[in-house]
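Lab notes, practical 5.
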Amino acid sequence: MSLSPGEDQHAGLDAGWVLPDPGPREAVCTRSILCRSFRRADGLLDIDGRFIDTRPFDYESEFRGPCKSGSALHHMQLRLTVDRTRHIVALVSAMPSTPYDTCPGVNPNFQRLVGLSLARGFRKALRERLGGVEGCTHITALLDTMAAAAVQTFASNAYAPRQPGQPEPVRIWKLDALIDTCHSYRSDGPVIQRMKSR
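Output from the prediction step:
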């Protein structure tokens, strides 16, 4: 898959950090959760998510044997296909690398999410369907992030250029739903005041 404009900012581990320089330290683990969203020709939206954990040293796993530096301890992927109402209409999953060979056996359970809305209540419904031994903690973490990314997916889709015949974008939030949800959206702040004056 090729990179879209701007995605190189997400690829470089050492690029883009503006935190203060740390003291002496050595790396022990890198976790990345990446979400990419696409508008399909049929008007549906795909959200691809990937969860990866790596260790920067060789180690011995009781279940996998010798593991090379940089190899993925966890590598899970999901594709959610979402309709204009933010409901999951299809889901594809893969687990290229797992700590145990039993992990991929949970893949069929993820189909229980088809039909769910990614809007309010998704986290609760996710845990009801895939809690405990019915799911995977890493896939749950990935799905939490993908549900949050869905909000930005719909917002970004509203700004994306449209081809002739493509439907108008869906606006998924109302101003009242934003008020007092974060520092910049405080009811007496300049952002909300400007939005109200439109």
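Observations recorded by the TA: The chain has a mean pLDDT of 89. The CA atoms of residues 140 and 191 lie 33 Å apart.
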